[in-house]
Amino acid sequence: MPVSPAYRPDPKLPDLGPDFADPVAAADFPQTILRYRNDRAAASVGLDGLTDAEWIAHFGRFQPLPGNIPNPLAQRYHGHQFRVYNPDLGDGRGFTFAQMREAGSDRLLDLGTKGSGQTPWSRTADGRLTLKGGMREVLATAMLEALGVPTSKTFSLIETGEHLQRNDEPSPTRSAVLVRLSHSHIRFGTFQRQAFLERPDNIARLVDYVIATYYPEVDNAENRTAAMLSMVVENAAKMVACWMAAGFVHGVLNTDNMNVTGESFDYGPYRFLPRNDPNFVAAYFDQQGLYSFGRQAEAVYWNLQTLGGALSAVAEPDDLIGALNEFPDGYRAELRAAMLRRLGLKPKSQDHDTALVNAAFQALAAGGEPLRWEPFFFDWFCADEARAMSGPRAEIYNERQFANFRTLLAHTEPDRPERLQAAYFQRTEPQELLIDEIEALWAAIAERDDWGPFNAKLAAIEEARLAYSL
């Protein structure tokens, strides 16, 4: 392939060695039908110039990218799944394929896969991904990015021509291989595995890798490991706060689904809230509501504590506890900031902003069944009361339960109110991504192989992203 000057390969993961990953080969798929390519994400790593044939060769057949990882690496990790420790994990249907520097910055980004075939960590599974699962992940990452959530980006989706048997969807069902672009695939469970194996030398090595690769600013800190944990805590607090402001429920907040750079990834049974409900769960098997919407911050904090436990083999517990104790205040600050961003407002004061955020959640609850989550933020974006009170939900907003929210909102300053001139905000309804719509998009594909509604939805989400980010 002709190499773009913006393509800067920098494979670091192989340096960690065989204790952390295994060389694997991708499955030889019967077909490779390109269903989605993210050229905007590809441009960020200098790969947007690939022809479709080259794209399929690299992301469907997994021919190595120039100067990059010569053999895909399936990472080794453990994890708590619904708070039960599982030492039989690892990349069972994926691998890290390449690493490169982001154009315009020095961030190292990974290309990782999902559905690329069996690995030593597949156990009895087939190592595959359903096309429906891949389609859902494309939608999730696009919507989350539009709403300002730190997330992996779906880079590629290729249908692979196999027929899969699954218990949670009609089978046989179509198969796919997905590639995601993410800042890191080093998980909390990567540290947990080395702690379980009683390898403090490998924990120290992993700490050095994470600091050098992702957090060089703490390299000279007196307590480097605790300083690294503090950065992980900060980014995890931001991530979950952004989920809450977006009305997003990840669904499976296990320690192998959390990485050290604070990007959410690996979207299985996710959901976006139809309306405010702290008990809303995304996964049908989460019968205790452990990862419900209202408990996500608690779940992330618990996971951070398990990471701290693994790090205690190489750092003083008191230093690690100090870093972990930063989470509650950090989360509250990040939630204020995330809610202000969703409402298109500039910060005013901590007291006022806290009261406004509380009033917003109370108003969402008071709106009950008729008030959906996303339209609330859409209507009140940039504190444009005239727009909200002339829209389809004006009758709801006239109720006394909204008085406190409206009073507090009147004392705010909009952030870049010119964004309201975008065509997106001339509409009466925002883009949402509720489960019924996702099922309808899949039905068009499953029944008629009609990708038109799916592509139209992505275009509509992109319009929203551009409107919010102007």
TrEMBL record:
ATP binds at residues 90, 92-93, 114, 126-127, 180, 187, 266. GO terms for molecular function: nucleotidyltransferase activity. Keywords: ATP-binding, Magnesium, Manganese, Metal-binding, Nucleotide-binding, Nucleotidyltransferase, Transferase. The active site is at 256 (proton acceptor). Its EC number is 2.7.7.-, 2.7.7.108. The keyword Cell membrane does not apply. Mg(2+) binds at residues 257, 266. It holds the Pfam family SelO. Its cofactor is Mg(2+); Mn(2+). It catalyses: L-seryl-[protein] + ATP = 3-O-(5'-adenylyl)-L-seryl-[protein] + diphosphate; L-tyrosyl-[protein] + ATP = O-(5'-adenylyl)-L-tyrosyl-[protein] + diphosphate; L-tyrosyl-[protein] + UTP = O-(5'-uridylyl)-L-tyrosyl-[protein] + diphosphate; L-threonyl-[protein] + ATP = 3-O-(5'-adenylyl)-L-threonyl-[protein] + diphosphate. Nucleotidyltransferase involved in the post-translational modification of proteins. It can catalyze the addition of adenosine monophosphate (AMP) or uridine monophosphate (UMP) to a protein, resulting in modifications known as AMPylation and UMPylation. HAMAP family: SelO. Belongs to the SELO family. This is Protein nucleotidyltransferase YdiU. It comes from Phenylobacterium conjunctum. The gene is ydiU.
